[in-house]
Amino acid sequence: MKKVLFICLGNACRSQIAEAFAKVYGEGFIEAYSAGVKPAGFVHDKTIAVMDEVEIDLRGAASKPIDPVLLSQVDWLVTLSEEAKPIFPATSNHARKLHWSIDDPVSVFGKEERIFQAFRMTRDEIERRVKTLMDQIKQS
């Protein structure tokens, strides 16, 4: 099984979503993990809500720091924020590295529906990218 690690800033939204979709679309051939450069200490309530909309329950998920042992063992490392991109040099040479520049919906302010729409757009973009990545890993 290939190990895939998704990293963003707080591990409260983007990398949590990526890990969840990878577990669904990569079931049986990958192990998915996520972490944050500066863990928020919680999974954002709107992340949980928009994942509920696609019938993925993140209520048991936790915001985690980067585990250096896991980082040295991963086959694929995907960063989802500019703050996470500097992690690349700390990984093993064999890890394949991808950077997805995905806006953080946590930084969107305004009316509730506007904020939820930002979270949904982030979720949908990550889902598309994870599906493509899982196809790529299957073929490698």
What characteristics describe this protein?
140 residues, alpha/beta, Rossmann fold, 4-stranded parallel beta sheet, 4 helices
Q: Can you tell me about this structure?
A:
This protein is an alpha/beta fold and 140 residues long. It has one domain: Rossmann fold (3-Layer(aba) Sandwich), CATH 3.40.50. It has 4 helices and 4 strands; from the N terminus they run βαβααββα. A 4-stranded parallel beta sheet has the order 2-1-3-4. Helix 1 (14-25) packs across helix 4 (112-139) and helix 2 packs across helix 4 (112-139). The model has no long low-confidence stretch (mean pLDDT 95).
Layout of SSEs?
Blueprint: E1 2-8, H1 14-25, E2 30-36, H2 45-52, H3 68-73, E3 76-79, E4 96-99, H4 112-139
Parallel strand pairs: 1-2, 1-3, 3-4
Q: What fold name goes in the CATH topology slot?
A: Rossmann fold
The CATH level-2 architecture is identified as 3-Layer(aba) Sandwich
CATH top level is Alpha Beta
Overall 3D form: globular
Distance between the termini: 12 Å
- The proportion of residues forming helix, as a percent range, comes to 25-40%
Question: What count of helical segments does DSSP give?
Answer: 4
Q: Kindly provide the radius of gyration, computed on alpha-carbon positions and rounded to a whole number of angstroms.
A: 14 Å
Low-confidence stretches: none
